[in-house]
Write a structure and sequence with these properties.
2 strands, homodimer, mainly alpha, 287 residues, Farnesyl Diphosphate Synthase
Chain lengths: 287, 287
C-alpha cells in the first residue's frame, strides 16, 4: 500500500475536523488553542484510531470525533510538558512553545481547555451507540489519567537527572506515551464495535507499537534529529532507551517491538494493511 | 428541614466516595492529589447534584460518581488557579497551596489528573443508562471547557488589573463559577432521567444559584472573610460585584438571584426542600 498517500489523506481529514471544531475567534484562549492544535504534527494517534476502526468495518467519519479527541489530548500534554515547571522547552516543531507566545497562565489554560473539550467531542459524537461512546470515553480517560499519561509524566518529573534502570524507563514510557497510542488503536476498535478477539489482537498491536514508537523517538532524540517529537529528553538527562541500551541495542529493541506488533495482526487480512504499514513506518523513522 | 444535618450527611457521603476513589499510595502524584482533594471544602457542587437527583427520584448512590466528578473538577480548577502564573496564591483554606507543597510541575499534573479522572469516574458509573451517562459527560465537559470555566478563567486572566464593567464581571463569573454550579444541578437531573419541564426548572434554579453564589463569594472576599472560596480577587484588582455595585448593591443582587432561584422551584413540592435550603444558605453566608 501507498502509506505516504494514506497518511496524507487521513491527516487532511483530521486537520479539517480539528480546524472546524475550533474556528478562528477573537478570544485569546481560542487563538492560543489554534496555535498549538493546528501547528502540524504527524497526527499519528488519530490516524491509528481511524485505521483500527477500518479494520473493524467502521467508516472514518464515525471514528473521526474520537480521533480528534486523541489529538487534542496529545496536544494538551505537549503544551503542559513544555511549561517552565516541566521540561521548560522554548521550541516545539521549530516554533516557539505556547507559553513563550501566550504566557504561562494562558498556556496552562490551553491544555486544560483541550483536555476538557476532548471529552466533549467524544460525548457529542453522532451515529455511535451511547454504550460504545461511553466505553471510548472510559478508555481514553484511563490512558490519559493517573495510571497512564499523567502518571507517567509525574514519574518522569521525579526521575529527572537520575540514572534510571531499563525497567524504570519502560514503565515511564509505557504510561507516558504508550498508553495513549495503545488507546488510540483500542478506541477505533471500540467505536466500531469490534469482537473480543479482534480487540485483543489490536490491543497487543497497540501496546507493541507504543513501545516501538517511543524507542524510535528516543533514538531520533539522541541523534539530535528535529523530527523527534519535540523532546529534548537526552539533554534533560532523562531516562531514554539509547541511554540504557546504547544506540544499536535500542534499534534492535524497536525492531523487536515492531515485529511483535505485526505478529499481533496475523489473521486480520488485508483490512489491517494500513496498521502494518504504520508499524513499519514508526520504526523506519529511526533507522 | 435541617440543612446543617443534610449538608453534613451528604458531605460525608461525598468525602468517603472521593477517599475510596483515591486510596493512599506511594506515588507522589497520588499523595498530591489527596492533599488537595481531601482538604475539606463545602462540597457544594456534589451536594447540589445529589439534591437535584433526589428531586427527580434518583437515589444518592446513583448520582454519586457524577457528584464526585464535579468536586474533582472544582478541585483541579482551584489547584491550577492558585499557580504562580495565575492567581499566585500561597494559601487555600488556610493550608499551603498545592504548588507550595509539591512544586509547580506536580501541581499542574495534579490538576490534569483530577480533570481526566473526573471523566473516567463518570464513564465508569454503574446502574446508569449509557445515554444518560454520556449526556452528563457532555454537560460537564461543556460547563468546564472553553465556553465555560476555562474560558471564564482566561477572561479573568486578561481582565486582571483593569476596571471591568458589570456586564463583563457577570460574563466572567457566569462562565468561571456559574457554569459548573448550574451543570451540577443539571447533571443530577440528567442522571435521574428528569423530564424536559423539570430539567428546565432545575436549569433556571442552577443559573440563578450560580450567580447568587458568586456574588456572595465576592462579598465575603471583599470583607476579608477566610470563608470565601480561597480567592483574593479583591486584592488582585479583579472584577468583583462589590467593586462594581458597592457592598449594599451586591447584597441586594445576591438576594434577587436567590429569590429567582427559589421561584424556579415552584411546583416541585417537598422533594425540592434541600435545593431551597441550599439557595438560602448560599446567600446567608454573605449577609
Amino acid at each position: 500500500m501507498d502509506l505516504e498517500r494514506y497518511l496524507a489523506a487521513r491527516g487532511r481529514l483530521v486537520e479539517r475536523a480539528l480546524a472546524a471544531r475550533f474556528p478562528p475567534a477573537r478570544a485569546r484562549l481560542r487563538q492560543a488553542v489554534r496555535y498549538s492544535l493546528l501547528a502540524g504534527g504527524k497526527r499519528i494517534r488519530p490516524i491509528l484510531a481511524l485505521a483500527a476502526g477500518e479494520v473493524c468495518g467502521a467508516p472514518a467519519r464515525r471514528v473521526l470525533p474520537f480521533a480528534c479527541a486523541l489529538e487534542m489530548i496529545h496536544t494538551y500534554s505537549l503544551v503542559h510538558d513544555d511549561l517552565p515547571a516541566m521540561d521548560d522547552d522554548d521550541l516545539r516543531r521549530g516554533q516557539p512553545t505556547s507559553h513563550k507566545v501566550w504566557g504561562e497562565g494562558l498556556a496552562i489554560l490551553v491544555g486544560d481547555a483541550l483536555l476538557t473539550e476532548a471529552f466533549r467531542v467524544m460525548a457529542g459524537a453522532r451515529g455511535v451507540p451511547p454504550a460504545r461512546a461511553l466505553g471510548a470515553v472510559a478508555e481514553v480517560a484511563a490512558a490519559a489519567g493517573e495510571a497512564g499519561m499523567v502518571g507517567g509524566q509525574a514519574l518522569d518529573l521525579a526521575a529527572e537527572g537520575s540514572r534510571a534502570s531499563l525497567r524504570r524507563v519502560q514503565d515511564i514510557h509505557r504510561r507516558k506515551t504508550g498508553a495513549l497510542l495503545r488507546s488510540a488503536v483500542r478506541v477505533g476498535a471500540l467505536v466500531a464495535g469490534a469482537d473480543a478477539r479482534t480487540l485483543r489482537r489490536l490491543t497487543a498491536y497497540g501496546e507493541h507499537l507504543g513501545l516501538a514508537f517511543q524507542i524510535a523517538d528516543d533514538i531520533l532524540d539522541a541523534s539530535g534529529d528535529p523530527e523527534a517529537d519535540g523532546r529534548t529528553d537526552h539533554e534533560l538527562g532523562k531516562a531514554t532507551y539509547p541511554g540504557v541500551l546504547g544506540l544499536a541495542g535500542a534499534r534492535a529493541a524497536a525492531a523487536r517491538e515492531r515485529d511483535a506488533a505485526l505478529a499481533a495482526l496475523r489473521g486480520l487480512g488485508r483490512a489491517a494493511e494500513a496498521l502494518r504499514a504504520l508499524a513499519a513506518y514508526v520504526v523506519a523513522r529511526a533507522s
